[in-house]
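Q: Could you fold this chain for me?
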Amino acid sequence: MVKIQIDLSEEEDRIVEIYKLTKKLKTKQEAIKNMVKFFEAEIKPKRMNEKEYFK
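A: Sure. Below is the predicted structure, expressed as structure tokens.
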């Protein structure tokens, strides 16, 4: 588990609050966790070639 502390701008805070209310969630933390699921991450080696990385 990873804990992250972020500073949201006023606009970002409103977006999270609206998402929280529309999805009937209890906390902004739950809202952000759900919002993150909309994204996809891809991990690529930066300083190694792929052949070396997948060895």
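A (continued): The radius of gyration is 17 Å.
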